[in-house]
Amino acid sequence: MNHLMTFWHNLKHSFGNLLPIVLVVGVFQVLVIRQVPDNLSTMLVGLGIVVFGVAIFLQGLDLGIFPVGKSLSNAFARRGSLPVLMAFGFSIGFAAVVAEPALIAVAEQAQEISGGRIDALTLRLLVALSVGLVVALGVLRTLLGHPLHWYMISGYLLVVTVTFFAPEEIVGLAYDSGGVTTNIVTVPLIAALGVGLAASIKGRNPLAHGFGLVALAVMVPMIAVQLYGIVVYTLLPSPADAAQLAAAAASAASMTSPPTNTAGQQALSILLDLLSMLRDVLPIILVILFFQYGVIRKPIPYVRRVILGFAMVIVGLYAFVVGLKLGLFPVGRSMAEQLIALDTHTWVYLFAFAIGFATTMAEPALIAIGAQAEEAAHGKLNARHIRLLVALGVAIGITIGVHRIITGDSIHYYIMGGYALVIALTFFAPRFIVPLAYDLGGVTTSEVTVPLVTALGIGLATHIEGRNVLIDGFGLIAFASIFPIITVMLYAIVMELIKADTGEIS
User: Fold this and answer.
1) Which of 147, 165, 259, 453 is the most buried (most CB within 10 A)?
2) Burial profile 429-443: b = 16 or more Cβ within 10 angstroms, e = fewer
3) Which residues fall within 8 angstroms of residue 139, CB to CB, at 6 or more apart?
4) Domain coordinates of the chain in residue numbers?
5) Distances, alpha carbon 326 to alpha carbons 57, 69, 196, 197, in Å
6) Helix count (H) and strand count (E) of the chain?
7) What is the DSSP-derived secondary structure letter of residue 466?
8) Residue pLDDT, tens place only, 10-24
9) CA 313 to chain centre
């Protein structure tokens, strides 16, 4: 009975994430576009599959991954062994990101659009390695008590420097890859590790030292993917013509050839897809088994429930990916095509702003972190103010990102300008807000929002003359990650100034 109630809660959670998107799309379809999109019934089925897929996935996390991951984090924090803690941080960071649904979606889109030049699995492994290394570094930072802002300033100076040399085909994808690494799998595990460590070490403040692992996990993949792009697009010979010809031939064959799949072939295809999902989740399973039995040397409690949880994670991931292809990707591309066809681009900007604000206000991870931050800050922060500021930042970011696609401006200048502002604000912002602000930039895009925003960017780049889909289509998620950091730090700076003025007057 408890499991059914939990599943019902997860189903409402998933539907709650999707509802703002449905409402915004519905309002624009009825009042602005005034036409029904093609394949509406297929899209609706796909959206329904996404809802059930995410609900099953979350149920599996609650039953299997989260309890074991949190108990391991607590056990290692009590031991206080630095090598073991760093090894566990690396392993859990790597394993969680490899199974991140939003990263899977973005990587597959990048491989498809680049004609195979960017390999989806290589991209995911590279991002996962980056996150693993940076979580290990973050564990060390928490143990040593170093302030986060020096890590972030140094890191983003390196990010901006690498951006100067990175080919334009990779920049948007690199920043998007950083933005999607922290989501429904990674945030709870990484945040629990950081806050648990800070709470267990004398002299550490959970707000100042516990937050920040998520921010580091967003930053470092940006560097790694841009370096990957330099290798692929600059140092390796270009297979573009052959890849494009092969892709075009495959596309033409798929459109002209009648479907020949039998029921047996479809069943085999489903089985192979489920096995590929098992491959995605397998690193988490292996990490947990190794540390549970090889390091702690204790059996996993409630092992049957944990096995059931992992099975539900695999099935939920499969349903999520199927739903993306049927529902969210077509919705995003359809809306982009329909809005661009209107006489003015004003509606495109309004749609981008509305989607960014509405989906962020409904983001459960943001609600949870806002409440935790209010409690940890002892009255210095208000949870609702945080949510409003972050939602406003995401809305502004996606709108500016859409403007960049429409005008055809280089993403380099927008990204470097945005992070230059972030670095400058970091010097002036109150120290207690810096880790939280950077973390909030990494949890603003949900598993439902990311695919829609990615599809919107790709759709705009596809239907605006003179745009390159790989260069211009990616990058919206990056803008959605930058501007919440700016709005939260500006809010903290203004509040500190107001308090200082009030104190002087009194």
Assistant:
1) 453
2) beebbbbbbbbbbbb
3) 85, 86, 89, 193, 194, 197, 213
4) 2-234+269-505
5) 18, 33, 40, 42
6) 22, 0
7) T
8) 788 778 777 887 888
9) 18
